[in-house]
Amino acid sequence: MKLRLHHVNVCSDDMEELNKFYAGVLGLEVLAPLPMIDVEEGGDWEQNVGFFDASGSDELQIHASRRQVYLGARMGHAVNPLITGHFAFRTDDLDELRARLTQSGIPFSDYGEWSVEGWHQIFFSDPAGNVIEVHQVLEERST
After folding, report:
1. Shortest CA distance to 55 belongs to which of 32, 31, 39?
2. How far apart are CA 118 and CA 110, in angstroms?
3. pTM of the predicted model, to two decimals?
4. Cβ of 108: how many Cβ atoms within 10 Å?
């Protein structure tokens, strides 16, 4: 199983302020929106997320999102990735990681293909309480 850091997610109640900071002050390139899954009827992802290139080659990103305090509870999960933010790894074997976490007694929330089309996401906390996402890009699907 390989893990590589993919993005850091920062949360705020003021998306305009976050966007001005990362694009304007830091000068990070704004990335095209990822293909998002609308998790709430009438939801407008473009007003709730932003994506920035943090590496100069789109290999490491900053994801900015509107804080959603009750997201985990509304979705029946113990871990809420959008209350304080999280950092995320990409893996090539999510099944192996789930087995490792289970064997180590570390609970995780399996969100499945939740926010980004084509990404299967799980979330858990490290011993200090930091939220971690690990996702695997799903195989191409034929329609």
Report:
1. 31
2. 15
3. 0.85
4. 18
Element spanning 103, H or E: helix 94-103
* pLDDT classification of 140: cutoffs 50, 70, 90: low
CA–CA dist 136, 134 (Å, integer): 7
The closest alpha carbon to 45, from 65, 72, 62, belongs to 65
In the CATH hierarchy, which fold is given to the domain comprising 3-137?
Answer: 2,3-Dihydroxybiphenyl 1,2-Dioxygenase; domain 1 (3.10.180)
The CA-atom distances, in angstroms, between 12 and each of 40, 63, 75 are 19, 11, 20
For residue 87, name the pLDDT band (cuts at 50, 70, 90).
Answer: very high
